[in-house]
C-alpha cells in the first residue's frame, strides 16, 4: 500500500476526528476513485465560509445523519471538496487550510500558492490553545 502524501510532499496527517471528517470518515483527507468531489482540502471552517457555502447550495451547517454528516460549526476541521474551497477562495471567503493534512490530489484543482496564503498551524490538541 502506498502512503498518502500531503501538498508539502510529506506523509498525510489527520485532519479531524471531532467531528470525524474525510470522505471515508477516517479523520483524514484521503481520496480515491470513488471520491468524485475530491474531499482533499483540510480546513478550519469559519462562519463566513459556512455562510458562503450555504449561499451556493452546499449547506455544511445542517446535520445530515443519513450521510453520517453532523453539521459543522466555526472552528471545526473538515475535509472539503477542492473545487468548493477554490470557489470560496475566489470569492474572498476561503477557510484556513492545514497544509500537512491536505491531500496532494488537491493540487489537481487548487494552486499550492492559494493554499499557502490561507495556511494555519493547528495543534493536534486544540485544548492547548486555552
From TrEMBL:
InterPro entries: DUF2237. Gene3D superfamilies: Protein of unknown function DUF2237. It comes from the Bacteria. Pfam families: DUF2237 (PF09996). This is DUF2237 domain-containing protein. It comes from Amycolatopsis thermalba.
Amino acid at each position: 500500500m502506498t502512503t498518502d502524501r500531503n501538498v508539502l510532499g510529506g506523509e498525510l496527517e489527520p485532519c479531524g476526528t471531532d467531528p470525524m471528517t474525510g470522505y471515508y470518515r477516517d479523520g483524514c483527507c484521503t481520496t480515491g476513485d470513488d471520491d468524485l468531489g475530491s474531499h482533499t482540502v483540510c480546513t478550519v471552517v469559519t462562519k463566513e465560509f459556512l455562510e458562503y457555502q450555504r449561499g451556493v447550495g452546499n449547506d455544511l451547517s445542517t446535520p445530515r445523519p443519513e450521510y453520517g454528516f453532523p453539521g459543522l460549526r466555526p472552528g471545526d476541521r473538515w475535509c472539503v471538496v477542492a473545487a468548493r474551497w477554490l470557489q470560496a477562495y475566489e470569492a474572498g471567503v476561503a477557510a484556513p487550510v492545514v497544509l500537512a493534512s491536505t491531500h496532494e490530489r488537491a493540487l489537481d484543482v487548487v494552486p499550492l500558492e492559494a493554499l499557502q496564503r490561507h495556511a494555519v498551524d493547528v495543534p493536534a490538541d486544540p485544548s492547548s490553545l486555552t
